[in-house]
Amino acid sequence: MRKYVILGVQGSGKGTQSALLAGDLDLVHISVGDIFRWHVKHHTKLGAQVRRLVAAGELVGDDLVEDVVRERLQQHDWNYGFVIDGFPRNRRQAEFFLESYDIDGVIHLDLPDEEVRRRVLARRLCSRCGMDYNLIAHRPETEGRCDVCGGELVSREDDSPEALARRLQEYHSKIDPVVELFRRKEYVMTIDARADKATVQRTIRTRFNLPPYLPSQEEPVRLSG
């Protein structure tokens, strides 16, 4: 059984790298962002709360994130292990995680803030099916339209320069101490996330002595996240 935590700022490719690992190694990918997006899409009470926070450019509160993760992990459907992204969010949660789960490693995707801004502000989302696009690396065949369903591509509510600046500031103030805590336990492998996704995935697998990544293998389709 393998259990990994993947940490990285918005736009660093956490979701993509987690999905590649999970799909090839039979791990369960637990994405805090995907859980919250499901609630927003299905108009739950939690979804409405998340939508208000996101529209204001704020991060979802740490206590709420912790409750959601605890509930998800208690389902115990991860027979071969899991890779979790979007958690832990602060030092207290990191300490709880270390006490509760015998993790195999922490993948820290390192991305400079200027590259974060370049990537995030180029993101688009299909308003109909939720497919993710990035105008830098994954442009649609028809400008402004989804290749899958033809829906209109729009910017996410929280992808504005002002909202992103607030998120970056909050991210560094909370996540940097988490990385330092894990690093003292010798769990952390810091990976340069500026490279293309295949190079990043190969580096992760080499550093953690995992089976090699074969680019020709069928890759999971990544929706919003």
From TrEMBL:
Name the UniProt record assigns to this protein: Adenylate kinase
Q: Which domain of life is it from?
A: Bacteria
Q: Highest lineage ranks of the organism?
A: Bacteria, Bacillati, Actinomycetota, Actinomycetes, Streptosporangiales
Complex formation: Monomer.
Q: Tell me, what does this protein do in biology?
A: Catalyzes the reversible transfer of the terminal phosphate group between ATP and AMP. Plays an important role in cellular energy homeostasis and in adenine nucleotide metabolism.
Q: Which organism is it from?
A: Nonomuraea rosea
Residue ranges annotated as transmembrane are: none
* Positions of AMP binding: 37, 58-60, 86-89, 93, 156, 167
Chain positions covered by the region annotation NMP: 31-60
Q: Name one GO molecular function term.
A: kinase activity
Q: Which family does it belong to?
A: Belongs to the adenylate kinase family.
Q: What metabolic or biological pathway is this protein involved in?
A: Purine metabolism; AMP biosynthesis via salvage pathway; AMP from ADP: step 1/1
Q: Which reaction(s) does its UniProt entry say it catalyses? A: AMP + ATP = 2 ADP
